[in-house]
Amino acid sequence: MLHGNVTAVPTGVGPSMVSYSKRSIYLKPNIYPSLSSLDSLEHGSSRRKLQSQFRISTRKLNRPHALVVRSDYPQNVDFPRYLPKKERKPFPVPIVELRRAARERLKKSKGQPRKPVQPPRTGLLVKSLIPIAYDVLNARTTLISNLKKLMKVVPVQACGWCSEIHVGPIGHPFKSCKGKNATIRKGLHEWTSANLEDIILQIEAYHLFDRLGKRITHEDRFSIPRIPAVVELCIQAGVEIPEFPTKRRRKPIIRISKSEFIDADESELPDPVPETSERLIVTEIHNSEIVAPSDEEGIILLAEETLMAWEQMRKGAKKLMRVYSVRVCGYCPEVHVGPTGHKAQNCGERKHQQRNGQHAWQAAVLDDLIPPRYVWHVPVVNGLPLQRELRNFYGKAPAVVEMCIQAGVAVPDKYKSTMRLDIGIPSTVREAEMVV
């Protein structure tokens, strides 16, 4: 052990060195135990300085590493912004990006042979998406049947003046009503029992016998049936429903111009053979056959099946929308399944006079086809009701997901961001005022 003024200075890579009185002794790692022979230095009067330079590999050093927690879903996300009717819906891809991508494609295609057109633009079906279309249709039917049973167990409230709903035994006290005489009621809701149509909005669209045919005119708007848009998307993707026939081609069309084409001659082809193993289509349960589960375990199993059907329907519809185009009006909720929108002049939203009542068509997103209907999340169902002063601490979730959670299903990870489960809710209003 060294006595006196000794300073240890860690430096770069190099051999260990002890220096005193202008004299240096190089130490090797295998002679570290011989440091006891330096006891004679304790009687010296000169200033000692110990410099140690260690030749140690950086791989053996226990350097601290930053803990990185990766997650596909953010921790907290704001609720979907309410779009006023004066504003147009945002485009899924900005127009500037679309124009830039078009210029890039035009630049790369110069001097190159023209690529063949892929289905469904040729009039043929995409065979790999036919099973997905059947799964989406069956998941929608299963979801509707299970929600009819689940509504017998989980109460759902609906406002009698506006379209807002709430999942729970008691409606929320927030002043957010925008219906008739809302100013007289100071924005408070008048809660009643909700129906299935309040939970799942039935967005309807025109059924097309030929998805590549002529556009629907204003005079033909009443002669063409309207069906749920999800069902129409599944029919165009390959689902066969006898009540809604559609034209199926076995040869690609012959394109004359951008808007004109002729069908190929299919007389040489053999007659189509019906499939031996037809895919089954689930039928919807009638209202008289609805029986709610009586035990808690049956309720949880029903809620899990309902949530699975909800996710399967949305996931499959998103895959179909990537290939089969769906259009939506930029100002109203009108949806059209097909390459181009119809010409019916039935839009009554902002600037409809300038468009002569026609819709401002743009590419649709999944929420336009299947609206999620966000509702307030109740942290404790059988506890205290939601308080008006603590509104900023509560989260939201789709109505179907909130019903399944209150029935006993674990919260899915993708919905935790808007539900704000990691935020502590104050017990009193005074405690909430102290939050910084």
From TrEMBL:
Any Pfam family: APO_RNA-bind
Coiled coil (residue ranges): none
Family matches, as InterPro entries: APO_dom
Domain APO: 158-243, 328-413
GO function terms (MF aspect): RNA binding
Protein name: APO_RNA-bind domain-containing protein
Species, as recorded: Cephalotus follicularis
